[in-house]
């Protein structure tokens, strides 16, 4: 199956980044969100990123123009998915909300369209089972920032077909990404490791082992990670990280119990970069 048109549902950090990268790669993209204000922010962010990237020589002027020409922004779900070959959902990590969204998508999307969730932890089998054709359902786990990170995890649900996996692999490669294929298990590969490292860093901070800055510095310089685990959590959003940890705790048990410090910060509204304060102040 040849994918030419992609619909992205949700215009937050991940959705906006997926739309940008797809447009940059030559796909026709529609980015949908229920909030017009969120769409305006996404459009401004994508235009600004494309202009700055062209000025710095990271992309050509032609690629800059592709980003601005190839993305349609809309609050209308039917308009977004009506002619899509691939629909990628990038909304909150709430199972019920994802299932509800895909049920609505199926009302308007073509029968041939592949449906993909950008979940970092949740079951594509469970979400796909709520759709009419689980064989064309898959998880495509992108990483933030999407335009720079090279990996996409492709996660098979129980009924995901080989044809679906191959189609999203080809899309990923056209976006300039490397892929790994994962058989579904809670947290997949990267999120399972990332969550447990980050959670331990939070516990160490809570116990007074070291400052946030020194914990992150030790991981970056001692283990050669490009970003410290507390910096990473702030970037992802502490509320998002807590939802992921709660899901993994329910699925995999005690070792994924969320750090009390994470719970406290979320209750206090310290959500990381997006709120201006998390483990660091922005």
From TrEMBL:
<feature type="binding site">
    <location>
        <position position="93"/>
    </location>
    <ligand>
        <name>NAD(+)</name>
    </ligand>
</feature>
<dbReference type="InterPro" id="IPR006176">
    <property type="entry name" value="3-OHacyl-CoA_DH_NAD-bd"/>
</dbReference>
<feature type="binding site">
    <location>
        <position position="98"/>
    </location>
    <ligand>
        <name>NAD(+)</name>
    </ligand>
</feature>
<dbReference type="InterPro" id="IPR013328">
    <property type="entry name" value="6PGD_dom2"/>
</dbReference>
<feature type="binding site">
    <location>
        <begin position="10"/>
        <end position="15"/>
    </location>
    <ligand>
        <name>NAD(+)</name>
    </ligand>
</feature>
<feature type="binding site">
    <location>
        <position position="274"/>
    </location>
    <ligand>
        <name>NAD(+)</name>
    </ligand>
</feature>
<dbReference type="InterPro" id="IPR006108">
    <property type="entry name" value="3HC_DH_C"/>
</dbReference>
<dbReference type="GO" id="GO:0008691">
    <property type="term" value="F:3-hydroxybutyryl-CoA dehydrogenase activity"/>
</dbReference>
<feature type="binding site">
    <location>
        <position position="33"/>
    </location>
    <ligand>
        <name>NAD(+)</name>
    </ligand>
</feature>
<feature type="binding site">
    <location>
        <position position="120"/>
    </location>
    <ligand>
        <name>NAD(+)</name>
    </ligand>
</feature>
<dbReference type="Pfam" id="PF02737">
    <property type="entry name" value="3HCDH_N"/>
</dbReference>
<dbReference type="InterPro" id="IPR008927">
    <property type="entry name" value="6-PGluconate_DH-like_C_sf"/>
</dbReference>
<protein>
    <submittedName>
        <fullName>3-hydroxybutyryl-CoA dehydrogenase</fullName>
        <ecNumber>1.1.1.157</ecNumber>
    </submittedName>
</protein>
<feature type="domain" description="3-hydroxyacyl-CoA dehydrogenase NAD binding">
    <location>
        <begin position="5"/>
        <end position="184"/>
    </location>
</feature>
<comment type="pathway">
    <text>Lipid metabolism; butanoate metabolism.</text>
</comment>
<dbReference type="InterPro" id="IPR022694">
    <property type="entry name" value="3-OHacyl-CoA_DH"/>
</dbReference>
<feature type="domain" description="3-hydroxyacyl-CoA dehydrogenase C-terminal">
    <location>
        <begin position="187"/>
        <end position="282"/>
    </location>
</feature>
<dbReference type="Pfam" id="PF00725">
    <property type="entry name" value="3HCDH"/>
</dbReference>
<keyword id="KW-0520">NAD</keyword>
<dbReference type="GO" id="GO:0006635">
    <property type="term" value="P:fatty acid beta-oxidation"/>
</dbReference>
<feature type="site" description="Important for catalytic activity">
    <location>
        <position position="141"/>
    </location>
</feature>
<comment type="similarity">
    <text>Belongs to the 3-hydroxyacyl-CoA dehydrogenase family.</text>
</comment>
<dbReference type="InterPro" id="IPR036291">
    <property type="entry name" value="NAD(P)-bd_dom_sf"/>
</dbReference>
<feature type="binding site">
    <location>
        <position position="144"/>
    </location>
    <ligand>
        <name>NAD(+)</name>
    </ligand>
</feature>
<keyword id="KW-0560">Oxidoreductase</keyword>
<dbReference type="GO" id="GO:0070403">
    <property type="term" value="F:NAD+ binding"/>
</dbReference>
């Amino acid at each position: 199956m040849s994918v030419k048109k992609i619909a992205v549902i949700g215009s937050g950090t991940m959705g906006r980044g997926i739309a940008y990268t797809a447009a940059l790669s030559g796909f026709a993209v529609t980015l949908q969100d229920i909030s017009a204000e969120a769409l305006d922010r996404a459009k401004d962010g994508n235009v600004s990123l494309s202009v700055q990237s062209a000025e710095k020589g990271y992309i050509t002027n032609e690629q800059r123009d592709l980003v601005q020409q190839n993305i349609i922004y809309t609050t209308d779900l039917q308009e977004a998915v009506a002619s899509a070959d691939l629909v990628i959902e990038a909304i909150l990590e709430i199972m019920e909300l994802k299932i509800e969204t895909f049920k609505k998508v199926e009302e308007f999307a073509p029968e041939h369209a592949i449906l993909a969730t950008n979940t970092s932890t949740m079951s594509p089998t469970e979400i796909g089972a709520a759709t009419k054709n689980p064989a064309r359902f898959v998880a495509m786990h992108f990483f933030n920032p999407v335009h720079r990170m090279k990996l996409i995890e492709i996660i098979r649900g129980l009924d995901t077909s080989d044809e679906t996996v191959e189609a999203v692999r080809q899309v990923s490669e056209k976006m300039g990404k490397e892929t790994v294929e994962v058989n579904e298990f809670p947290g997949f590969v990267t999120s399972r490791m990332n969550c447990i490292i980050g959670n331990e860093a939070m516990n160490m901070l809570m116990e007074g082992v070291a400052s946030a800055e020194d914990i992150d510095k030790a991981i970056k310089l001692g283990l050669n990670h490009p970003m410290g685990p507390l910096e990473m959590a702030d970037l992802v959003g502490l509320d998002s990280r807590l939802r992921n940890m709660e899901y993994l705790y329910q699925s995999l048990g005690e070792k994924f119990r969320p750090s009390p410090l994470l719970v406290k910060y979320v209750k206090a509204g310290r959500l990381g970069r997006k709120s201006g304060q998390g483990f660091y102040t922005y």
